[in-house]
């Protein structure tokens, strides 16, 4: 996506902390998100989040404080 820049999990962690977001897994799938919680998500560790991203070939991208998980470029 235009304007989005790939960032490290550590940088994503800092942005997420400011926004009250945590890494989560969608219940019943291997999809991960940055979430405030809810009944659709199980909160996971940042280490597990990073492992899932690597395993699935995904990265976190950021633009203007908005983060998106996409296929790594």
Keywords:
alpha+beta, 73 residues, 37% strand, 30% helix, three-stranded antiparallel sheet
Task: Describe the model.
The chain has 73 residues and is of the alpha+beta class. It has one domain. It contains two helices and six strands. A hairpin with a 5-residue loop joins strand 2 and strand 3. The chain is globular, with a radius of gyration of 12 Å.
Number of strands: 6
- The structure class reads alpha+beta
**Residues in helix, %:** 25-40%
From the spread of the alpha carbons, the general shape counts as: globular
Output the strand order for the largest sheet: 1-5-6
* Overall number of structural domains: 1
Distance between the termini: 11 Å
- What is the tally of helical segments? 2
Largest sheet: 3 strands, antiparallel
Radius of gyration: 12 Å
Question: Which strand-content bin applies to the residues?
Answer: 35-45%
Provide mean pLDDT, rounded.
94
In short:
The chain is α+β, with helices and mostly antiparallel strands and 73 residues long.
Fold topology:
Layout: E1 5-7, H1 9-19, E2 22-26, E3 32-35, E4 41-43, H2 46-56, E5 58-63, E6 66-71
């Amino acid at each position: 996506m235009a304007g989005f820049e790939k960032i490290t999990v550590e940088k994503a962690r800092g942005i997420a902390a400011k926004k009250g977001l945590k890494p989560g897994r969608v219940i019943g799938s291997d999809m991960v998100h940055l979430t405030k919680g809810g009944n659709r998500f199980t909160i996971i560790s940042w280490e597990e989040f990073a492992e899932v991203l690597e395993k699935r070939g995904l990265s976190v991208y950021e633009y203007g404080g908005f983060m998106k998980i996409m296929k790594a470029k």
